[in-house]
Specification:
Distance between the termini: 37 Å
Number of domains: 1
Largest sheet: 10 strands, mixed
CATH superfamily: Ribokinase
Number of strands: 16
Order of helices and strands: EEEEEHEHEEEEHHEHHEHHEEEHHE
CATH architecture: 3-Layer(aba) Sandwich
Shape: globular
Strand content: 25-35%
Strand order of the largest sheet: 7-6-1-10-11-12-13-14-15-16
Structural class: alpha/beta
Radius of gyration: 19 Å
């Protein structure tokens, strides 16, 4: 019996930091900053690192470091990058018995272009992770107290509702960080009623509720009404809101935090929060551990570097509690 099994992508990340990067600033809805590279030219790279990432394995790393018996369920390619992911999972003492391999597609890859600590562009190849469908999910091996569903894509996305219903029917606790594909499902509000911990960022919450991004109270209230479990809305540098249906908890990150790389910051908060919540059921402590884990992740390059270990000391943020 596992404490938690994670579903989601497993990725080989290639992090590049160009020597000279010109940022173009102008008004645009999607992004106010863009970069251009001249075609046919060589671009000098100041630094390059190889790390593994992906929502399924990033969160599994924190759960394992926090002392939870953890397994990852997903698909990787039968290639060098896939073997590197297996090696790293084993290093973290994450069970790999539920990992499947394929030669139909290569392991997922991401090229992460770093500029400053808060700016990066990710070019993603969505490969082998998309090939798991409900027919090859090892349902009879999902012996666990919790399931964690990171954003799902490809065939696995089509299994989202099946995974939710499986957890609900088997009385397995369920935490979900849905991607846009899941949020776009017309029956997501009905699915959300079966979720114990629902985690979204403010942009995703605005998309789901069709309420303007700026009106966060209205967004949060509508999602809180939709899900009877714990609802979390992260707001990037502006912190987080958490509701248990009776109270709203809020916190902001330390102003003096060091930001080296934002890759994996959302995963580190979600998994840090959930680790403490599974252990104690204390929302305030969960927010503090989630924030501390995220700050640690932000301070180093790579989604799994800087994560907190069980009982490791860290700076605890102030958590405010208000009645709904």
């Amino acid at each position: 019996m596992f404490d938690i099994i994670t579903f989601g992508s497993a990725t080989q990340d290639i992090l590049l930091k160009p020597k000279h990067l010109t940022v173009l600033n102008y008004k645009k809805e999607v992004s106010a900053k863009e970069v251009c590279f001249p075609m046919g030219s060589k671009i000098d790279i100041e630094d390059m690192q190889f790390n593994t990432g992906g929502g399924g394995t990033n969160t599994a790393a924190t759960f394992a470091l926090q002392g939870l018996k953890t397994a990852f369920c997903g698909v990787i390619g039968r290639d060098i990058s896939g073997q590197e992911i297996i090696n790293e999972l084993k290093k973290f003492k994450i069970n790999t018995d539920l990992v499947q391999t394929t030669d139909k597609k290569r392991t997922n890859h991401s090229v992460v272009m770093l500029n400053t600590g808060s700016d990066r562009t990710i070019m993603a190849y969505r490969g082998a992770a998309e090939l798991m469908d409900k027919n090859n999910i090892p349902w009879n091996k999902l012996k666990t107290k919790w399931l964690y569903l990171a954003p799902l894509s490809g065939l696995l996305c089509d299994s989202f509702e099946d995974l939710v219903n499986f957890a609900f029917d088997k009385k397995i606790k369920l935490a979900v960080n849905p991607g846009m594909a899941q949020l776009s499902l017309p029956n997501f509000p009905q699915i959300a009623k079966k979720i114990d911990v629902l985690i979204m960022n403010q942009e995703e919450a605005s998309f789901l509720t069709k309420i303007p991004y700026e009106t966060e109270k209205e967004i949060f209230q509508k999602i809180d009404d939709m899900c009877s479990g714990i609802v979390i809305m992260t707001k990037g540098p502006d912190g987080v809101l958490v509701s248990d249906g009776n109270h709203i908890y809020s916190a902001v990150p330390p102003v003096h935090r060091i930001i080296v790389d934002t890759t994996g910051a959302g995963d580190s908060f979600s998994s840090g929060f959930l680790s403490e919540f599974i252990r104690t059921g204390d929302l305030e402590k969960g927010i503090q551990l989630g924030m501390g884990n995220s700050v640690g992740c932000l301070s180093q390059v790579g989604a799994k570097n800087g994560l907190l270990k069980k009982d490791q000391e860290f700076e605890k943020v102030e958590v405010k509690k208000e009645n709904i």
